[in-house]
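Task card 7
Instruction: Convert sequence to structure tokens.
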Amino acid sequence: MLTTGSKLFLGATVLSLVAAIVYGLSTSGGFGWLGVMGLLTAAVAFAFMFCINYYTHDGNVSAMSEHATAESPAAQPPATRSMWPLIAAVGVAAIALGAVSKPIVFKGGVIVVLAAGLEWMVQGWSDRASADPEYNAGLRKRMLHPVEFPILAAVGLGVVIYSFSRIMLWINKSGGPVVFVLAGGVILFGGFLIALRPTIRGGVIAGVCAIAALGLVATGALMAIDGQRTIAEHPTTQTDNNAVCALAEEGPGEQAEADQKGSQAVSSKASVGLTVTLENGQLDAHQLGVQGNVNPITVSRGNIVNLIFKNKDSEKRRLTVNMGQFTIDVNGTTVKQQPKECTTLVHPDGSQFLTFTLPKPSIASAEPYTLTVPGVDGLKPIEIKVP
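Output:
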């Protein structure tokens, strides 16, 4: 005997098939086939639901069954209230927002929706596992707590670390160690009080920890919105390198620190294709795979060039890469650019690693690409050819 639900699904299946036939006969071309496939898919789905509903008899229980009042779906207690639908709705909103903003928001929304769906499904199943609510609650805990607790602990730890990092980046450099020591002292003192009075209720300890965590997160959020302190860029030869790379002595101002604290030794480096040596007022280049010294050297356009500069001279020297001369237009004014890159000052018998890239061929530059050492009289530079 067909139940009401089975009749509805059977009727929807027949109507979908008839609509597919009529649409296919009345419409031609790609749109016709697309519509027919959509209607046939709906017919298959309705037929599948009809089979399931027919097998379960629409949830009806025979009046002759002795256990009908306890076994029928209508006799089961309703599922308890849950927060997971609300959390899933937040995840859906995040997906919609992330689709037009940032990918991280979209991915976070997908994770929230999947997690909420899993939690909601397990809770709905456990609520109907038996007629004992306590047993059902324990069953849910055994299923999800081994997954929930590690994830919640990791998320909570990440929030605490991120909030504390925003605070440390907001305060000035001299105050950071003081705040760090004070925070550690407060935590240590709190642990001492708890150990001293073991009779303190767990609820009091949990409340104090919750208030402290809330204060930390709120403070971190405010300082993250305000922005971190200004952190001065560590001086390198890349700062105003055109002026510094032409000097034979220490650079001015902050550049002097870069020259004074530059490394004077190079460990084993991967993919070093060029070794440049200054000795007796002469600059020699040895290119990987080529016997003897080479001048000019050839490098590929746009590739990263890794070289080691060895100073065998009796004075501090720096190797400079003259990267040609180009003309650009800046607000209607023609400006000449002569980019350079260089090492810091290398002590006698010292060495340094330098990496650079030449994005344009040699013919595009008004001046040749060269390797040179400022301050060495009569030095013949090494020319660089870029095909």
